[in-house]
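Need TLR-5 mRNA's 3D structure for a figure. Predict it.
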Amino acid sequence: LGAGFCWDVFKGLSHLQVLYLNNNYLNFLPPGVFRHLTALRGLSLSYNRLTVLYPGDLPAHLE
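Structure prediction for TLR-5 mRNA:
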């Protein structure tokens, strides 16, 4: 995601349960980007360019 990334891109999606972000060339996850996804149970980030994930980057309620 480039400089035009909307930091609240997931706002309003509080009922979303599964999110696939595969093959998006992501190299960075902004802190708190998933904070509005309170029902999220599954997240796939396969085939991106992420090299580091810090504690708290991912929602605690993932299965």
